[in-house]
Amino acid sequence: MAVLLAALPTGTGPYMLAEFYRREAHITSQTILLSTLGSLISLSLLLFYLRAPG
Predict the structure, then answer these.
(1) What's the rounded Cα separation, in Å, for the pair 17 and 27?
(2) Cα separation, 23 vs 29, whole angstroms
(3) Non-local CB neighbours of 46 within 8 Å, separated by 6+ positions
(4) Which stretches are transmembrane (predicted)?
(5) What residues does each domain of the chain span?
(6) Where are the alpha helices (DSSP H) in 1-54?
(7) Which of 10, 27, 42, 52 could form a disulfide with 35 if both were Cys (CB 3.0 to 4.6 A apart)?
(8) % pLDDT > 70, the chain
(9) Where would I find the H helices in 7-24?
């Protein structure tokens, strides 16, 4: 379970905080996008590995 939770993307909470405090929201949004794409790839590979026979 910890591996699956670690593979999840960053939520939108950091972006909302960056907007609220008027900090670099564009960097935060890029991080969220990259973590979402990384999550898609890593979760797909993990699920494929777990379903592989043997």
Answers:
(1) 12
(2) 12
(3) 3, 4, 7
(4) 28-50
(5) 2-51
(6) 2-6, 13-20, 25-51
(7) 10
(8) 89
(9) 13-20
Going residue by residue through the chain (54 aa), what tens digit of pLDDT does each one get? 777 676 677 777 888 888 999 999 899 889 889 988 988 898 899 889 888 786
Contacts of 48 (CB under 8 A, 6+ apart): none
* SS3 at position 12: coil
pTM of the model: 0.67
User: Tokens at residue 36, please?
Assistant: 């979402």
Residue 54's pLDDT is 66
